[in-house]
Amino acid sequence: MDKQKVRERIIEIGIVPVVRASSAGEACLAAEAVCQGGIPIVEITMTVPGAVELIRELVKNCGSEVLIGAGTVLNRDAARRCIDAGAEFLVSPGLNLQTVAFAAGEGKLLMAGALTPTEVMAAWDAGADFIKIFPCGQVGGAKYIKALKGPFPEIPFIPTGGVNLNTAAEFLEAGAVALGIGGELVQAEALKTNKPEIIEENARKFLAIVKHTRAHLASAHAAAKSTH
Q1: How would you list the strands of the sheet with 130-133, edge to edge?
Q2: Which of 10, 13, 39, 56 has the highest count of CB atoms within 10 angstroms of its CB?
């Protein structure tokens, strides 16, 4: 899939499920569950044992229906391995300029991690496709995204950390283009007890919030335009 289509899919769905698991088997279960719940996107973090092989396996088995990406990509070498395994997008927790340049050269979408305005500017200038604000919940959550949107109205932010069923709408209202959701969606307990239906249900709930909030924002925007 080309980079533009990957970008469009992420924005359209509005949720990037972050899969951290203690085994490849659990990660596989999580990937299937979020897809069953209606989210055809999975970010497999490099902290999962055998992550690169798992990405390769998922791409082979369900890459036509599901967008498979790699998370916690810390450097260029890791990025290379993930792309070779078939990852369609890369996500880093912080800013590594070599990784941004490498992804751009390979024509692959990259969500670069940033926290401060200086990092946001550096990541965007380097060619990142999305800016992942992490850990967002620890620095003010939705209010922080709203503050960043002031000077950076054009930059697409994906907050990660602090996004849950209670805060998801607030992040979207603050201007987030999509949401990175880990443990609040892919619950460790559900994986350990082999209850994928919990994750499926979470996925449906988050999707409903995205749909409802976006519809509300669109109608508010249309109403505001008609009064001018």
Answers
A1: 157-159, 130-133, 109-114, 89-91, 67-71, 41-45, 15-19, 179-181
A2: 39
